[in-house]
Amino acid sequence: MHQMSSMTDLLFVFMLAGFLGFQLIKRVSPLLHSPLMSLTNAIAAVVVVGAIMVTGEEGASPLAKMLGFIAVTAATINAVSGFLITDRMLKMFRKKGS
Fold first, then answer.
1. Alpha carbon of 55 to those of 21, 63, 65, 94: distances in Å?
2. CA separation for the pair 62, 4 (Å, rounded)
3. Which secondary structure element, helix H or strand E, spans residue 13, and what is its range?
4. What is the DSSP letter of 89?
5. Which among 24, 76, 19, 66 has a CA at the least distance from the CA of 46?
6. What one-character DSSP code corresponds to residue 66?
7. If phi over 0 gives left and psi between -120 and 50 gives alpha, with beta otherwise, what is residue 29?
8. Cβ neighbours of residue 47 under 8 Å, at least 6 residues apart?
9. 3-56: per-residue pLDDT in tens?
10. 68 touches 54 (CB < 8 A)
11. Which of 58, 80, 62, 59 lies closest to 70 in space, CA to CA?
């Protein structure tokens, strides 16, 4: 049987993921920021798909639908702006004649 996690468990996982993510990104060398940004763009795309699934679920509560909509919007903005920034960074390394 599927057992729902308690709010405390979910909050703990969220806080742990936030802390570990911050520590991981904080320690990345500036030379690796472009590859890291492309990885976070891929993660944002996965978040968009997951949020769409939560938002479109048949038995979802209004709160879940509202949070899903916010997640879709925020992750889409994150992914699009990440791709734009990556593109701009890559243009900085091109030769002037190309």
1. 25, 10, 5, 41
2. 18
3. helix 7-26
4. H
5. 76
6. H
7. beta
8. 71, 75, 78
9. 556 778 777 877 887 787 777 667 766 666 666 666 777 777 788 888 888 788
10. yes
11. 62
